[in-house]
Structures are given as structure tokens and as C-alpha cells.
Amino acid sequence: MARSQLHPREALFDSGDKAPELPVCDHYAGIEARMRKSLELQGELGPVFDVTLDCEDGAPVGGEVEHAHLVAELVMSALNVHGRVGARLPAIDHVRFDDVLAILLERAGTRLAYLMVPKPRDIVELRRACDAIDACSRQHRIVRDIPVHALVESPGALRDVVAFAAHPRIESLSFGLMDFVSAHRGAIPHGAMSAIGQFEHPLIVRAKLEIAAACHAHGKTPSHCVVTEFSNVGALQHAASRAAGSFGYTRMWSIHPQQIRPIVEAFAPSAAEVDLAVEILTDAQAADWAPIRHRDVLHDRASYRYFWHVLERAHRTGKALPAEVELRFFGPAAA
Known about the structure:
It contains 14 helices and ten strands.
């Protein structure tokens, strides 16, 4: 193969540099009608967002086992068109953790995109949860490692966030804003849970930045917390833009179907960014990935890597790319 035909992934990255390419939006649903509606919407829009079916807060108290059976049924159903459906487990110390885990893996382990572990208070609890998932997988003869996501929701978890991100079974870390605020026993005002306040309070800002930095240091995906003012589109757009543009997050939670499209749009590159990335990467590939001059600006492998991430993000968010670029960089031969 001529060097000029090397794909950007081959030319620009070492084997250990590749981070997971997750959809930019993670949509949570727990009530049956909303879970079904979310899966239908995913079928319509495509895999630009994940659906996480909730076996923690979404399960009725005392009805966790029955709810787990429902979630497993939905994961295995024809509604799961794109294979991008995960599940949130109960907390590791919940009396039904083992039961719910066993049901999900026995009935849906072959199709679960990931499992979310909520409320690990430290790295010891996270390791316990990952070990339990792996042991249960072996018991049910699941040959693949199901990706594990985890929530950072307490001061103890934040203290261990680098160890969380370094754990080999972790694919993504999310910030649990409301539990994190509550864990400070009134020391953080409730306004810090709002769409505006969460970007202003120093302890919240610190937590978000530490999670994002730990994830990027270990090639994991940082996922931003919810905006509870789900009918306030302006507040959501502001939060999503800040998360993506200023805080280093590449993914964000949605808790209402109306939040999905604004989040995807906020995390997508602009048309001008996409056009610039196409021009630079096309010229770079033609130059065998040597330095080039583009619009009187020098570009080399460092900036090529940046612009490749722009194109990847455009592809993940459903942005239209020139047909030739789509085929060359994201077609079957590029897989």
C-alpha cells in the first residue's frame, strides 16, 4: 500500500492511543413506556446516542428483579436496532445487585453495549463491581468483556478518580452532580445543581475538570452530568456547549427525549470546522502525512490528529460529509 493511502488511524496514532468512540449523548430511561419510546427514537435517528435502561433509580422499590427482566427483554428485542443499548445496575451494596446482574447477563449479555456502575465510593468498590461483572459473565459463558462505565458521585470517588480511569475494565466515567452535591451535607448550595450554577461553584468545577483530565490521561470517555431543567432548551444548550467547549467532555447525559438533539448538536463540530478538517486531512494524506502549508499556516501530525478527531466527531453525530470523504475514511474498507 502506498504511504499516501494510509488511513489517519494508521498514520497518526499508535496502537495504545485509541480511545473508545462512543456516541456523544447517553440517554437514560427507566419507566417502560419511556424506555420503549427511547429505543424507537434511537431507531429513527440512528446510533448518534446511546440508550441506558435504568435498573437503579428507574426500578420500583421491591420490584428490581421484575424490572431487570423487562430491561433484558428490551435489550434483546427488535427495538434494539443499532446495538447501542446499555443498562445501569443497582449500587454494589444493594441487596439485589447480584440478582439484577445475573438476570441481565443471562438473558441479554450477548447484546448489552455496556453496564453502568453507580455510586462506587472508592476504587475498592469499583474493583468489586468489575470483578462481580466478570465472574457473572464467565458463569454465563459470555466470551467478551462487557464494557463498564462508572459514576463519580462522592468525594471519595473523586479522590480515587485517577484510579477509576486507569482501571482496565472502565470505558467511560460520568459525573453524578446531584449525589455529589448531596454528599457534601449542605456545604454546597442547591443552586450548584442548576444548569448555570454547576459551572460556577468551585467544588463542582474542580470535580468536573478532574474527571475529564483523568479520563483523557487514560484514554477513557468523560461523560457530563444531567441538566434537570429538561424543558429549558436554552439552559441545556448552554450547559452542553460549556461541557464540550470548556470542560473537555465528549459525551453528556440526557434524561428527556427533548434533550437528545440539542446535546448531539452542541457536541457536533460546525460546518466550517468540518470543511477545514477535510481540506487539511486530504492535503496531508496526499503529502504522505508530512508537514503541509494550508492557508499560510503550518500543519503537521499534531494538528492532523486534532482535525481527525473533528472528522470522527462529525461522523458520530451524523453530520453530512462529502461522499468521497465518507467512503475513504469511514467506509467498509476503513473499518
